[in-house]
Amino acid sequence: MPTAVGFWYGVLLFVTLIGALNYQNNLGLLLTFLMISISLVSMHHTWYNLLGLRIQTQAGAPVFCGQMARFVVQLDTERGRTRYDLRIRGSSDVVDKIADSHAQVVMQMATQRRGPLPINEIEVSTRYPLGLFHAWSLVQADAVGLVYPSPAAHAKSPAQMFSIDHNAKGDHGVGADDFVGPRPYRAGDSPRHLDWKALARERGLITKQFGGDQAQRVWLDWAHLPAVDVETRLALLCRQVLDAADQQWVYGLRLPGVIIERNQGDAHRHRCLAALARFQISSESAVLEK
Prior knowledge:
By secondary structure, the protein is of the alpha+beta class. It has helices at residues 4-22, 26-48, 158-161, 196-200, 230-246, 266-278; strands at residues 54-59, 63-64, 68-76, 82-88, 94-99, 102-110, 115-118, 121-126, 135-140, 144-148, 179-184, 206-210, 217-221, 250-255, 258-263, 287-289. The strands form five sheets. It has a four-stranded antiparallel sheet, with no helix packed on it. Helix 1 (4-22) runs antiparallel to helix 2 (26-48) and helix 5 (230-246) runs antiparallel to helix 6. Keywords: Membrane, Transmembrane, Transmembrane helix.
């Protein structure tokens, strides 16, 4: 398909041809047919630039609803083939050249609802070599991203809503004055617990954790939320998961048909947020995660 430049190039060819025929100018006719030949060769190279191109897709990290989801598109070419000026719809990146290798392009998609975000088709296009023609191809893809619920701006702390096991012992079973181990510094930590020797060695701010510093253990429970609609409840739970993770609490999640046992860490945070994202969307009627 001709581009805007290609269209005006065709108009120029037509005007040149009419003028050369009208004035019986052989040099004008020669120039016109030369330009037509160049355009035909350009059209062939535009099509050939996409022929045999292999495309693989991979979903990026999960995002919250309203953010831009990212997918990584890998373009592979066979040995001995060089390709130029490749574009992916949804990406501002342009692959100028691929030679005996591969290139990766990041494409973005707007998110409007939580849950799995499949990408079914990818459009790859090129205008190589002269920009006169635009060739494109639709490629089937099977990458599936994940969109977390958008967290509420504010939510009551689990400490204000649910019973917390303040008497739960840490995993170490040590006394309040026994040293448990180091952890990254958090705002509000007592200066007495800072590891000044580690700071002097340029290892950053590290807090010494003692037996009395056990993390609070809470349940984030669907049943304890106000009687509001499903999406509002999920937004509140999403905010509480983020807050509990920031405080490094040991927390669990209870949803209708879904139980995630108490734990902590980035992997546990993702499991809880993924359960919120897929709530009442997954085909499974009940899920038990431990």
